Amino acid sequence: MTEDLTQLELLTELEPVVGANIDRHLATAKDWYPHDYVPWDESRNFAAMGGQDWDPEQSRLSEVAKVAMITNLLTEDNLPSYHRVISDNFTNDGAWGTWVGRWTAEENRHAIAMRDYLVCTRAVDPVALENDRMVHLTRGVHAPENFGGVLDQVAYVTFQELATRISHRTTARVCDDPIADRMLQRIAADENLHMMFYRNITGAAFDIAPDQTMESVTKILKTFSMPGTGMPNWRRNGVLMVKHGIYDLRQHLDEVVLPVLRIWKVFNRTDFTARGERSREELGEYLEKLTRDVIKFEEQRDRILARQAARVG
């Protein structure tokens, strides 16, 4: 039985990979500026500055688009919590610290651009948005029980960044606004680069500590939840987003979980001990259950939509 690497040993072994991927990221990422994605000529003062306060008729977004935009923005807003968690699980020294700072700075642009767009175009109620932001950030983000350490962190963020990219892209489609589409596609491109960074680090971790990494990936997938879980109106808004295909179980399985597992060659690896094999079998059983759940979910959604269509007809 091989002895587990300590957190310090894992961080040390992975640091050269982190450094190489920072170089790759900086060579690939394109600088952009939130103010270039906001239609400032549409803005006007609110009542406190002698103008007019928000009215629902001022919004050109559908209810689904508003819910998706607010959910995505509040998720991005919680960056202080994510920074704390990622700093706790990595380190603020060396290449790891450089990445923590760079990632945080890039993520912060997303909330800036989205909020400026929503307030400028009067797409949502800015008072309700700010009230929800205060509640959400005060609560912070809470990791699942037994979550901790560099392997859990890089595995989770790999899946989460990819899921967030998909959510931004599908939100862009339902907004039916070329300005929102351009902004959200830009944000989604950032999320994709972040996902690739974490995916590469986790892939290297599989080579350095295969059993430990396998256990982390299995645990993360079995307990996975989006970082916005628990925000105000999360259940209601989540149902609406799922119903309209912003992010649902099918996308989670087919566009997030399975592609990443294939890149890591999880089910083709031959370097696990019996312990890693047990964890891989556990993951396989979970994926079989998730596949069944996806089918049930789609059948149920189809029935609901059919009933609604019949009532309208």
Automatic annotation (TrEMBL):
Its cofactor is Fe(2+). The keyword Metal-binding applies. InterPro entries: Fatty_acid_desaturase-2 (IPR005067), Ferritin-like_SF (IPR009078), RNR-like (IPR012348). SUPFAM superfamilies: Ferritin-like (SSF47240). Residues 280-307 form a coiled coil. Keywords: Coiled coil, Fatty acid biosynthesis, Fatty acid metabolism, Iron, Lipid biosynthesis, Lipid metabolism, Metal-binding, Oxidoreductase. It comes from the Bacteria. Belongs to the fatty acid desaturase type 2 family. Homodimer. This is Acyl-ACP desaturase. It comes from Nocardia vinacea.
